[in-house]
Amino acid sequence: MFSGLTQTASRQREIIEVVLRNGWDFMQQLLTGGKADQPALPTPAVLRNILVDLGPVYVKLGQLLSTRPDILPAPYIEALSTLQSKVPPVAWVEIKAVIQQQIAQELRSQFKEIDSTPVASGSIAQVHRAILANGQQVAIKVQRPGIDGVVNQDIALINTLADLASRTDIGKDYDLKSLAAEFSNALLDELDFTVEASHTEQLRQNLSTSRWFDPQQLVVPKINLALTTQKVLVMQWLEGEPLLSANLPYSQQEPKIDGARRQVTTLLFRAFLQQIYVDGFFHADPHPGNLYYLNDGRAAILDCGMVGRLDPNTQQILTEMLLAIVDLDAQRCSQLTLQLAKTRRAENLAQLESDFEALLRKYYNRNLAEINLGEVLYEVLQVARSNKLKLPGNVGLYVKALANLEGAARTFDPKFNVLDEIKPLMSDLFRRQLVGEDPLPTLLRTALDVKNFSLRSPRQLEQLLDQVTSESLQWNLNLLGLNGLRITVDNAANRLSFSILVGSLIMGAAMISAEKQTALYWLSNTLFAVASFLGLWLAVSILRSGNLR
């Protein structure tokens, strides 16, 4: 643990300088030897500035934290959601060297031309436009030189600090060690472009068929797997512009509602609903920069670096949660939240239900069009956080994806309503959960379960009756508090018996003394002395126990 701190000493000094420069009061007092109050996060703006100044790894950390409203309050989620690193593009000479190193000599001949000016630059990579030897236009995503060394050093430091923090109450409450491991794995996956290529191909295949939208109107870029390596990703070039920059004029008859805009937003939203509730594999970062409107009128989804996965049970719970929110059912929301939580127990179930009641009460007598689903889901996770319920990270990704998508859709089409889009699909969602895609196998499995139950039940009932009639049936009951009652009764019985014994000794001594026989005088005195000692000991023990009254 401490060797990790030693190996990253230079990086620690940089972090301390950034913290002091940005004025985090708690850390300033701690680092300068002053008395710091209880540990406190910096304000959202200060935290955002610290992460930006620390560089691309910490920017990615902030982006990951923005997907965890079950950990951070709403102001922090809002501040970190728009976090982008201000990284200037790398010189073409260095980018060209990475391409030459990653792609074999015979494959490099497949590029007819590569534009040296990047079309986009990020914290991990930058994108260049290129033309293959066959004339096809492609986009080349190239990893920044040396970024893997910086990432590995920062990951080691973050994991070491999380390990230290996990020994504190705050570290245990927020499970910082698991969060650091989750972040490390996500970031290492982003450094391997073959993983992103696999995610993109899976998403493209999943969205190639649908009953909810026209797959021909949605594009996920094709990956050139032959030219893709860990540090170079080659994909189909798409002509278009970011969704919010698309030049789609509003109609004159109905300003703020345009058929083309509504069609695009409905298409994208239904595509994401299919990813979440049907496929269980979804693009987890649908911010406006990753949603494009192409020149041919189709929509496109780009950049599958961050994805989420949901198992069938979680999909079912989240579907029911949507229905509970629409019905404003606080009790059902609390039950479903407990099913999602890792602990499955609330410290105070009544308090959890009361918090959900207070949350949903705000939406009573309000039109569904006025309800912001992303905001409600964020509040649901914050209720879970305030009740110390730990939710899986994929649930945070789900909420962040829906909230980002809803925000982009409402900006693009101000009168777009999420719940209006979900309602027509609800019956199909529940049908899929009940019988699946193919009803026949589900029906046969159900019939087989019923048959097995009908065959086992008579035999099990016969065994139960045999045990009852043969008196071999044993009942194991554990009544809370019964053991303490038994001990109390035993103590009382022992003291009563002891008192009777002392009284008997005294009476025996008195009877012997009444005989006035010198030979028995010593026995009378002995019995009386023993009885007096035992009686005194009993009185002292009762007084010491505090149970005299």
Structural class: alpha+beta
Helix content: 55-70%
Task: Kindly report how far apart the N and C termini lie.
Answer: 58 Å
Could you give a short account of the major beta sheet? 5 strands, antiparallel
Unreliable segments (pLDDT under 50, ≥5 consecutive)? none
Count of discrete alpha- or pi-helical segments spanning 4 or more residues:
22
Tertiary shape: elongated
* Beta strands, count: 11
Structural account:
By secondary structure, the protein is of the alpha+beta class. The chain is 60% helix and 8% strand. It is built from 22 helices and eleven strands. Strands 1, 2, 3, 4 and 6 form a five-stranded antiparallel β-sheet that branches. A four-stranded mixed β-sheet has the order 5-10-9-7.
State the main characteristics.
549 residues, alpha+beta, five-stranded antiparallel beta sheet, 22 helices
Task: Outline the fold blueprint.
Layout: H1 2-7, H2 9-22, H3 25-31, H4 44-54, H5 56-65, H6 74-81, H7 92-102, H8 105-108, E1 111-114, E2 120-121, E3 125-132, E4 137-143, H9 147-165, H10 169-174, H11 176-190, H12 193-206, E5 218-219, E6 232-236, E7 240-242, H13 259-279, E8 281-283, E9 291-294, E10 299-301, E11 307-309, H14 312-326, H15 330-340, H16 349-361, H17 373-386, H18 393-412, H19 418-435, H20 439-469, H21 482-514, H22 518-545
Parallel strand pairs: 5-10
Antiparallel strand pairs: 1-3, 2-3, 3-4, 4-6, 7-9, 8-11, 9-10
Helix pairs in contact: 2-4, 4-5, 4-6, 9-11, 13-18, 13-19, 14-15, 14-19, 15-16, 16-17, 17-18, 21-22
